[in-house]
Amino acid sequence: MASTSNSTSSKIITLRSSDGEVFEVEESVALESNLIRRMMEDDCANNIIPLPNVTAPIFYLVIEHCKKHAEMKDNKEKKKELRSQGEELLKSDPHTYSNLMEAVNYLDIKSLMDLTAQWLADFLKGKSPRLIRELLKIKNDFTPEEEAEILERNRWAFD
Amino acid sequence: MEKPSLPAPNLSLISFSVAAAAATALCFLGALWAVRSDAGERIRRSKKKKKKKGCECTCSCGGGDAVPSVNGDMGAECEREAPKAAAAMAAVERQTGASMMEQLVPEITTHALSYLDYSSLCRLSMTNSSMRKAANDDGAWKALYHKDFSVEQDSVRPLNGWKSYYAATKAVVNINAEFYNIIKERSLQEMRRFWLRADYVKCVHASGELFTGYNAVIGSWALSFNWEPVTFQLRDVCARVLTDVAWVTMKVHVNIESGPFNVTNVYELHNGRWYMVHHHCSQMPNGGDAQHHNIFG
């Protein structure tokens, strides 16, 4: 999408988040979303496109990451930087992370679906079940006996 | 997301209604409107339902995960799971707020979990009952098996699910790697421990010589350990694991001028441990530096 700057990039798409905020986004960025692409192919390109499932703060994040993802294509440093941001977000604000993931899924943005999934994989790597619970606020509903049994059954993975 | 599929049937309906008489056309349009809004409503509802299902699912099927055992000792784990469903359900009901991981819709969870490696999946499955259900997903483990081990065995249906099969395969692949470590270390003592003490074990070295029975086989290894040291590279390692038998095929590349070799190793499970019962090594006909004879002769 970065390479389309010569002719079409000046076109601006207007989108409205679920809480009524209006965003003006370059077409090349907006088209990263397959949902928006399909909507535009259908008809409603000239009007404001409503996004009833995405709030403004989350949509702002999505656009930011779309832009960053476009920039990082030929830039290894940027790629690293973007990949390492997930750990931070998952640690500090898992709920924003899940909202971002849902929005990206709803908007059908393949590159960001992959990126956010990679974040989770990087985040979980090497962390103990106890630490994962603590950081992601997962409630342990196992009895001590169950926990011991489950540990025994998964022991093969830690040898 | 499903929206683009809607206009197509509507269009065909429109052309149909135009061809009809004016009065009936009006009637059709009315029906069309009804169909359209009905379809829209259904999609919205099905989306909601999906979300809800994701939540219910974690509560209703707490058991039923495929839990592996270390050495491919399959069969014992299955039934023990069933009565636990009720307990898990009660446990989840006790829960107040669900975590962000549990609130994700199943498609997202599936996509996210496909990025995890086996140990992360296991750790996640140990956090709570709904994560256990998600991270023990059979499809996820099947995909991981194909990624980590082999694209073969796609039509195989492991008795206790793919997580169990993954664990059993990993155990066998590790044992098989140990075999080459033993040769590298030239440890006759370890080689003695590695083979099953039975009269039917067989070993065919790359020379084509066959040795039958535990003593003859170990004797042949003692002889081959006098030769120059070798390092190995295993490629295309494929393991097939049944309840207490497993076989591994591979290509073995060596740092000497002979080889590479096609190798088949067969193992049997006894008292929770895999033992080698058969080894067959043969030189590839047109492989790399295949002019010279091998070291095991």
Describe this structure in words.
The complex is a heterodimer of chains A (159) and B (297). With 159 residues, chain A is mainly alpha-helical. Chain A has a domain at 129-159. Chain A has helices spanning 27-30, 34-42, 56-71, 76-92, 94-107, 110-124, 129-136, 144-154, and strands spanning 12-17, 22-26, 49-51. In chain A, strand 1 and strand 2 form a beta hairpin. Chain A is elongated and about 60 Å long. The termini of chain A are far apart. Chain B is of the alpha+beta class and 297 residues long. Chain B folds into 3 domains: 3-60; 77-149, Up-down Bundle (Monooxygenase), CATH 1.20.1280.50; 162-283, Roll (Nuclear Transport Factor 2, Chain: A). Chain B is 50% helix and 16% strand. In chain B, helix 7 runs antiparallel to helix 8 (129-135). At the A-B interface, helix 2, helix 5, helix 6, helix 7 and helix 8 of A face helix 4, helix 5, helix 6, helix 7 and helix 8 of B.
Helix content of chain A: 55-70%
Major sheet size, sense and barrel closure of chain B: 6 strands, mixed
Count of alpha/pi helices of chain B: 12
CATH architecture level-2 label of the largest domain in chain B: Roll
Strand content of chain B: 15-25%
The total tally of domains of chain B equals: 3
CATH class of the largest domain in chain B: Alpha Beta
Transmembrane segments (chain B): 12-35
Protein name (chain B): F-box protein SKIP8
Keywords (chain B): Membrane, Transmembrane, Transmembrane helix
Domain F-box (chain B): 106-146
Question: How is this fold's topology laid out?
Answer:
The complex is a heterodimer of chains A (159) and B (297).
Chain A: E1 12-17, E2 22-26, H1 27-30, H2 34-42, E3 49-51, H3 56-71, H4 76-92, H5 94-107, H6 110-124, H7 129-136, H8 144-154
Parallel strand pairs in A: 1-3
Antiparallel strand pairs in A: 1-2
Chain B: H1 7-19, H2 22-60, H3 77-81, H4 84-94, H5 100-103, H6 106-113, H7 118-125, H8 129-135, H9 138-148, H10 161-185, H11 188-194, E1 202-204, E2 210-212, H12 214-224, E3 232-241, E4 245-254, E5 261-270, E6 273-283
Parallel strand pairs in B: 1-6
Antiparallel strand pairs in B: 1-2, 3-4, 4-5, 5-6
Helix pairs in contact in B: 1-2, 7-8, 9-10
Keywords (chain B): Membrane, Transmembrane, Transmembrane helix
Pfam families (chain B): F-box-like, SnoaL_3
Domain F-box (chain B): 106-146
